[in-house]
Design a protein that fits this description.
Shape: globular
Number of domains: 2
CATH superfamily of the largest domain: HUPs
Protein name: pantoate--beta-alanine ligase (AMP-forming)
Number of helices: 11
Structural class: alpha/beta
Keywords: ATP-binding, Ligase, Nucleotide-binding, Pantothenate biosynthesis
CATH topology of the largest domain: Rossmann fold
Bound molecules: adenosine monophosphate
Strand order of the largest sheet: 1-4-3-2-5-6
CATH architecture of the largest domain: 3-Layer(aba) Sandwich
Family: Belongs to the pantothenate synthetase family.
Radius of gyration: 19 Å
Largest sheet: 6 strands, parallel
Organism: freshwater metagenome
CATH class of the largest domain: Alpha Beta
EC number: 6.3.2.1
Length: about 290
């Protein structure tokens, strides 16, 4: 695996590969690599000839500078894990490399869906996320980009941004690949934040996947949106140590809440705090 730190170096290596007709997949991350990230790499390897990943903790998408400073950084261990997983090029840029000449400001806005759910909890987060993803796409120019279903709203907004940038489908599109959420043996979605959960808090964190399971079961029994919602919310009522922030059923195509009587696949999304740790999860439910 080659480690490169400049825009010029990564762009040169990628363009050499693309000239020979080979396909490039890109997996942007913020580091603190775990099995969830590695599943994205595995998916990329199946699709592309060259796999490029990046680690960049993007200051623009943090709501507080303290949060940005506290984000876990483990460059050496991350590089080892990514090399072992089969990444060909690891891009490790500095903030100046990504935002040169003082261009440290938002260039993309996430719109209406950017300010609800995760966006309501973290104002400006999605604008900063889209700004860096767009900048990284411009630099790497991948054929495929792989993101986790775990961050469903992020994926929705990236898909929306790409569609808006290429309305007629004239330019070569970047194909978004969605990787299923990787969970631990008890069902908890892997996240770099899980390390901050104490032994006592880990079972409490299972409230999120358990609530999603209950909603699925309610739908399988023929219940509608409100029955699924009630089944999930009851799990939180029974576990007050998991502080529910939002629980909603949205249409995956629009991220707008679904109505009772909806038929098809809806996405149940949830955010809750356990101690100091804020967790999110989601699941597709068929009505
Ligand atoms: P992050 O480093 O948190 O920005 O995440 C980088 C990518 O990994 C994003 O596309 C996430 O959606 C994805 N990801 C994070 N956790 C998981 C997980 N448990 N399963 C699958 N993908 C994940």
């Amino acid at each position: 695996m080659k480690i490169v730190r400049t825009v010029a170096d990564v762009a040169l290596l990628v363009s050499r590969t693309k000239i020979s007709g080979k396909k490039v997949a890109f997996i942007p991350t913020m580091g603190a690599i775990h099995e969830g990230h590695l599943s994205l790499i595995a998916l990329a390897i199946k699709q592309a000839d060259l796999v490029v990943s990046s680690i960049f903790v993007n200051p623009l998408q943090f709501t507080s500078s303290a949060d940005f400073e506290l984000y876990p950084r483990s460059e050496d261990a991350d590089a080892k894990a990514l090399a072992k997983a089969g990444v060909d090029i690891l891009f490790l840029p500095t903030v100046d490399e990504i935002y040169p000449d003082g261009k440290f400001s938002v260039t993309h806005t996430a719109g209406k869906i950017g300010s609800v759910f995760e966006g309501a909890a973290r104002p400006g987060h999605f604008d900063g996320m889209l700004t860096v993803v767009s900048r990284l796409f411009d630099i790497v120019q991948p054929d495929f980009a792989v993101f986790g279903a775990k961050d469903a709203q992020q994926l929705f907004l990236i898909r929306q941004m790409l569609a808006a940038q290429n309305p007629l489908g004239i330019r070569d599109p970047i194909e978004l690949l969605e990787a299923p959420t990787v969970r631990d043996s008890r069902g908890l979605a892997l996240s770099s934040r899980n390390k901050r959960l104490s032994k006592h808090q880990l079972p409490v964190a299972l409230t999120l996947p358990t609530a999603l399971d209950e909603a699925c079961l309610a739908a399988e029994r023929g219940g509608g949106a409100s029955s699924a919602y009630f089944s999930a919310s009851s799990v939180f009522t029974a576990t007050p140590e998991a502080k529910l922030e939002y629980l909603a059923l949205v249409n995956p195509a629009s991220f707008e809440p679904i109505e009772e009587g909806f038929s098809g696949q809806a996405l149940m999304i949830v955010a809750a705090t356990v101690g100091e740790v804020r967790l999110i999860d989601n699941r597709l439910i068929t009505f």
